[in-house]
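A reminder from the course coordinator: this example appears on the midterm review sheet, so study it carefully.

Given structure:
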């Protein structure tokens, strides 16, 4: 007899449908599906908010880019780094802060 192959999204749908039927207690349903009560609550809330489509895996991609430095700022840092290739990050940051006072917010210690 072959093993049952069940996708995670299908298991979530089955869990939500079983929880809606209330045939078992919530704790025993979570135990049956091998998830914690916190995860069970999360999937129920997502189902109530957006239906079956909300049970799909959410993207892990960041919603926003990190801090983007201005092009001129990057070029100045690159110039300092090329002039002093053996300097580490602390020395480059010190020179950058003394040369460009407005950069203090960027280099917090």
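Designed residues:
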């Amino acid at each position: 007899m072959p093993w049952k192959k069940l996708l995670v999204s299908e298991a979530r749908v089955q869990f939500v449908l079983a929880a809606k039927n209330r045939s078992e207690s919530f704790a025993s349903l979570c135990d049956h599906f091998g998830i914690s009560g916190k995860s069970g609550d999360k999937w129920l809330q997502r189902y109530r908010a957006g239906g079956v489509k909300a049970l799909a895996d959410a993207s892990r991609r960041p919603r926003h880019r990190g801090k983007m430095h201005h092009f001129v700022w990057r070029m100045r840092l690159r110039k300092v780094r090329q002039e002093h290739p053996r300097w580490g990050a602390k020395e480059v940051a010190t020179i950058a802060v003394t040369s460009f006072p407005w950069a203090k917010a960027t280099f917090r210690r």
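The chain is about 55% helix and 0% strand. Residues 14 and 34 are 13 Å apart (CA to CA).
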